[in-house]
């Protein structure tokens, strides 16, 4: 049963994840939480691990969730499911419907669709930070250290763009945040 | 075929940061070095990848493989790009849980969670910067943001798919209305 759930859940993600990996995060979060595959906490750890390991982030998340829920078969099925729609769509578009993407009617949908994805991602990121800093709507718990850390990390991340041409890499930001986490929350 | 597989294996193994980070590498390997596809084709696939769902790296690998060797090439390139991360993550998934029980690792991840939030916001900001600032997209952006915030805060059971389909529908409606008006004018 879990294998079928993984297949359906990740097919859904594969079919509706516009805008690359970060565009998929709100949908992955929604699907994963609604099936109760892993907790909210773990999900953000997993995003960090996916970002810090090579390969497409969406594939990394599918492999991880599949593997923790149902071992190697689960990993295979979830990864297969998340890839399949993208694979088929590109094959279809290239072989049969060469100019579909360029049609004005199709393009007219892309603008608002991308804007919607951007809004949804923004809200997801903002909500994740809010949850860590002031707790959820049901259970408020203000974490001053987390608020300061969020401000400091944002300042360093965006500040680095002013100094260096390309700015710092996301992996470096994750490492800095990890070190700060150990210093703030203790190591024993 | 074998060449396709190993080229994409290398791309899959050495790109951190997901699909967008892969595009320059794919361009370098497939356009400059191997001359499998032209620069124009590369631009075309970038547009297709952005307009279709799914991981961008998969879209690109499938397209290049298909152009070069048909369906079998597409399968070879796609498998190549996925395989390294699949194996690495599979390995990590076996011990991450036990790893998280160590106090300093758990503390580190508490900090990392915040960095992830910033990276997600940054991804959205970059999309907004690139966006055409017409009336409709800006309204859709604002509505989607507010709606998603409400969905999150009150744990509503509304799928983001509904939001995306509504946005696409709004775009199509505006386009059709405009076209009808133009036709009436030209009559």
Q: Strands, helices and their partners?
A:
The complex is a heterodimer of chains A (188) and B (187).
Chain A: H1 2-16, H2 20-35, H3 40-52, H4 57-95, H5 104-134, H6 144-163, H7 170-185
Helix pairs in contact in A: 1-2, 1-4, 2-5, 3-4, 5-6, 6-7
Chain B: H1 2-14, H2 19-33, H3 39-51, H4 56-100, H5 103-130, H6 135-153, H7 160-186
Radius of gyration of chain B: 21 Å
Oligomer: heterodimer
Order of helices and strands of chain B: HHHHHHH
How much beta of chain B, percentage-wise? under 5%
Which pair of protein chains has the largest interface, and what are the residue counts? A-B, 103 and 104 residues
Tell me the structural class of chain A: mainly alpha
Structural class of chain B: mainly alpha
What is the average of the pLDDT values of chain B?
84
Number of distinct helices of chain B = 7
Helix content of chain B: over 70%
- What shape does the CA trace of chain B take? flat
- Count of helices of chain A? 7
User: Mind describing the biggest β-sheet of chain B?
Assistant: none
Tally of strands of chain B: 0
Low-confidence stretches of chain B: none
CA-to-CA gap between the ends of chain A? 40 Å
Q: Helicity level of chain A, as a percent range?
A: over 70%
Mean pLDDT of chain A: 84
Count of discrete domains of chain B: 2
